[in-house]
Amino acid sequence: MNLFELRIVLRQLRHELECPNCKKAYPERKIRILGTTLESGAFLASCTECSQEIIVNVTIERRHRKISTSKRHYWKIGEKVSADEVLDMRNFLGQFNGDLTKLIITNEKK
């Protein structure tokens, strides 16, 4: 996604997104870019009314110089992670010598 496309997507998100909690619109200054690829982008939107945050994944289609969102997924963000939890995870990963993929998949099945 280039800068021109990114601006179009941000404008479109600003006009179409509403908070799932209080139904207020997200102002553009409260939509942050988490990351983009050639055809998609991940955004974090924060509501100014109720402080609800959502992650939005947008996939774009290019047709005759028009950009349209084809898929949009919303995920509510849970409790905030504390600084201590981040440090605990850093220490754990620093000492971990196993297969991290197996550890994550095993914990997801429980």
Topology of helices and strands:
Blueprint: H1 3-16, E1 31-36, E2 40-46, E3 53-63, E4 66-76, H2 83-95, H3 100-109
Antiparallel strand pairs: 1-2, 2-3, 3-4
Explain this structure.
- With 110 residues, the protein is of the alpha+beta class.
- The chain has one domain.
- The protein is 34% helix and 32% strand.
- It contains three helices and four strands, in the order αββββαα.
- It has helices spanning 3-16, 83-95, 100-109, and strands at 31-36, 40-46, 53-63, 66-76.
- The termini are far apart.
- The model has no long low-confidence stretch (mean pLDDT 79).
Low-pLDDT parts are none
How helix-rich are the residues, as a percent range? 25-40%
Give the number of DSSP strands: 4
- Provide mean pLDDT, rounded: 79
What distance lies between the first and last C-alpha atoms, to the nearest angstrom? 37 Å
Oligomer class: single chain
The helix-and-strand class reads: alpha+beta
Strand content: 25-35%
Describe the global form: extended
Rg over CA atoms: 18 Å
In short:
With 110 residues, this protein is α+β, with helices and mostly antiparallel strands. The chain contains 3 helices and 4 strands, in the order H-E-E-E-E-H-H.
Identify the notable features of this structure and list them briefly:
110 residues, alpha+beta, four-stranded antiparallel sheet, 3 helices, 4 strands
